[in-house]
Automatic annotation (TrEMBL), chain A:
The gene is mlaD. NCBIfam families: OM_asym_MlaD. Residues 39-117 form the Mce/MlaD domain. This is Outer membrane lipid asymmetry maintenance protein MlaD. It comes from Alkalimonas collagenimarina.
Length: 153, 260, 285
């Protein structure tokens, strides 16, 4: 086996591996909003975040516009505080917008849904570091069942 | 009687620890020291061919079949819950996180690891290593080091190829045969697979496994009793020890990466 | 080929320096044991510069071990081994590797690298230790192969060589870097009479032509007696007899005489250590 042939075959091997990695990186994995894109940050406080996790998607009408960057607990009021990272592409949400924790399907993972509010002269557009005031907490199945049982009596 | 048992256990422990020590010294001798590019590069290339390229076929074929089987099995379960849209993530995550690195490591231990053990054991038995040493050429640098690095480089590449081929195999069965929606297969996969959490962790696993398999294979060859029986035993030991070590480390790594 | 005289010349200068001690290898009070098994007990031995020194002895007394001790692959338990006046066991790794460039060893099996052709095998030490251009390496290799009569076999793989040819190829490799000392481990074992004759002739010829020092370990009495300048007979952890072949033939030790004449029974008993035969038979009855 000549050195030249070995060089070519090893080169092919590496090329195939790089190709396979590109398939994994681009077609299989979700590379969007991996933290590297140009984003801005908003905050939102909830009473209960349910099963929301860091890196859960943020959607507007089903379109992913960002990801949950972090969840921490406010030390004064003990309410969960969620940091949202939203793509710069979507930087015109008015302050009247609301955030909801939604569930995909009955048992699926939870995500954040933003419902854009109305705009007039008195309404500001949300900027980097602003807080979204209007939030609705996660639907917790146990509480729902409890309410259902309670109401029936 | 008890004393004798105790004695034997002690001797076995000391034997094992001494073996570990020799293995450590071998690895240190092989990978520490300034590498010479002029001499090292052709040797590494040759070993990349022997260890990597020659393992490619078995990796591709196994990857394809494992992906197909995963899709078939997954589909029959998922369809009961009407969740066949989740077939993509099921196949992709199983392959990326577990099957890709682990099965590649097991196949690699059987294909390349055992061959390396036998090769080095035979070189020892025919006094080639000794004569190299007498020619003032360090066999650890000349023989062990290029094989070690070739393995550590090849295995993650093979695991990546295995995983990609497996996912395509899953597509073949799930989409082309069982009729899962193609768009759903890929989009559900993309929604659930994360580049860092899943892809990179899988590759890290594979690098760790490569280190383990190559270390065991080379040490067993280098430490083999230089007879035909000793070499055949060393070859068997390579496959058994490397496979068990890979599975044990897989548990530890999984607990560290995905458990918390 | 202006290289050869130059090489011989440099060797000559080396010899001048070393005339202080005529011994290239000097083993002093050396003991070595493997596990609990004592192999050498305070043994003394010297190898004279420029001579063929043979070490003979029954099999299983660790003659190969002795060569490995001289080569620094094993370390003695006590005592010292001097190579050109410098202690082999006390050398650090890089000094040892430097020293090994001046010695070489011909292994019993030849130990050719099985994945390289004969040419590459002979070129191996030159490529490893020098930065000579490939054209010069080719000249050197062909010279060495010519010396052992295998110039035509340069493109064969070791697996295609007969045992005798493999040993000659290995000899070409051993002299590739013009060592000062060459150690032969059982060079005659398992050879047919013709290749044995070739090896005998080569050892003598190389010794005379290149001015190197040879150590031959063997138990083939006739061949050794025909080429050696000085012979050691080693048995029972010691040197039991030494001298020129002539002196040895006159040696008074019964063990030496038994070994030289190849008698089945004598000072070395035919029977492995055992209980008396009659007793053991009686027990079975």
């Amino acid at each position: 086996m000549s050195t030249r042939k070995i060089e070519i075959l090893v080169g092919l091997f590496v090329a195939i591996a790089v190709g396979a990695f590109l398939i994994l990186a681009l077609k299989v994995a979700n590379t969007g909003f991996a933290g590297s894109g140009d984003t801005y940050t908003l905050y939102a406080e909830f009473e209960n975040i349910g099963g929301l996790k860091a890196r859960s998607p943020i959607k507007v009408g089903g379109v992913v516009v960002g990801r949950v960057a972090a969840i921490e607990l406010d030390k004064n009021y003990y309410t969960p505080r969620v940091r949202l990272e939203i793509s710069r592409q979507y930087d015109n949400f008015p302050e009247t917008s609301s955030v909801v924790i939604l569930t995909s399907g009955l048992l699926g993972e939870q995500y954040l849904g933003i419902q854009p509010g109305f705009i007039d002269e008195t309404v500001h557009i949300l900027k980097d570091g602003d807080m979204i005031e209007d939030t609705r907490s996660a639907m917790v199945l146990e509480e729902l069942i409890g309410q259902f049982l309670f109401n029936r009596d | 009687m008890v004393l004798k048992q105790l004695q034997r256990m002690g001797a076995a422990t000391i034997h094992t620890i001494a073996g570990l020590g020799r293995a450590g010294l071998m690895l240190l001798g092989a990978i520490i020291g300034k590498p010479s590019f002029r001499k090292g590069a052709p040797l590494l290339l040759k070993q990349l061919y022997v260890v990597g390229v020659l393992s490619l076929l078995i990796i591709v074929v196994s990857g394809l079949f494992i992906g197909m089987v995963l899709a078939l099995q997954g589909y029959t379960v998922l369809v009961k819950f009407g969740a066949e849209q989740m077939l993509g993530p099921l196949v992709a995550l199983s392959l990326l996180r577990e099957l890709g690195p682990v099965v590649t490591a097991l196949l690699f231990a059987g294909r390349a690891g055992s061959a390396l053990t036998a090769e080095i054991g035979l070189m020892k038995a025919t006094e080639q290593l000794s004569s190299m040493e007498m020619m003032a050429v360090d066999p650890l640098r000349r023989i062990i080091a290029p094989r070690f690095w070739a393995g550590v480089i090849s295995m993650p590449l093979l695991a990546i190829i295995f995983t990609a081929v497996g996912i395509l195999g899953g597509h073949l069965v799930g989409v082309d045969w069982l009729g899962v929606d193609a768009g759903g297969y890929w989009s559900a996969m993309q929604a659930n697979v994360d580049l860092y959490q899943d892809v990179f962790n899988g590759i890290i696993k594979s690098i760790v496994f490569a280190f383990i398999v190559m270390w065991i294979a080379l040490h067993k060859g280098f430490d083999a009793i230089p007879t035909s029986e000793g070499i055949s035993r060393a070859t068997t030991e390579t496959v058994v020890t490397a496979s068990l070590a890979v599975l044990a480390f897989d548990f530890i790594l999984t607990a560290l990466m995905f458990g918390g | 080929m202006g290289i050869v005289p130059a090489l011989l010349n440099s060797r000559f200068i080396c010899n001048m320096e070393n005339t202080l001690s005529d011994f290239i290898v000097d083993i002093q009070n050396m003991s070595f044991s493997r596990g609990d098994n004592l192999i050498y007990d305070r043994m003394n031995m010297t190898v004279a510069q420029g001579k063929v020194t043979a070490i003979m002895g029954p099999s299983g007394i660790g003659k190969t071990t002795l060569l490995k001790l001289i080569g620094g692959q094993l370390k003695p338990d006590s005592g010292d081994i001097l190579f050109r006046g410098r202690s082999i066991p006390k050398m650090n790794r890089s000094e040892l590797y430097q020293t090994r460039k001046d010695m070489s060893m011909l292994f019993q099996s030849g130990a050719l690298f099985s994945e390289m052709s004969v040419f590459d095998n002979v070129a191996f030490p030159i490529r490893e230790h020098t930065k000579l251009p490939e054209s010069l390496i080719k000249i050197m290799v062909l010279m060495k192969l010519e010396a052992v009569g295998l110039r035509g076999a340069r493109d064969l793989m070791p697996a295609e060589l007969s045992g005798g040819m493999a040993r000659r190829a290995a000899l070409a490799r051993a002299i590739a870097l013009d060592p000062q000392l060459i150690m032969y481990d059982e060079p005659f074992a398992g050879q047919d009479p013709i290749s044995m004759g070739i090896v005998v002739k080569l050892i003598r010829a190389l010794n005379n032509a290149l001015g190197l020092t040879s150590v031959v370990v063997s138990h083939d009495v006739t061949e050794v007696m025909s080429i050696a300048d000085y012979v050691y007979v080693v048995a029972e952890k010691h040197v039991i007899g030494e001298g020129t072949p002539e002196q040895l033939r006159q040696h008074e030790s019964p063990l030496v005489q038994q070994f030289l004449k190849g008698e089945a029974d004598g000072a070395v008993p035919f029977h492995y250590k055992a209980a008396p035969y009659a007793d053991e038979l009686m027990e079975l009855l």
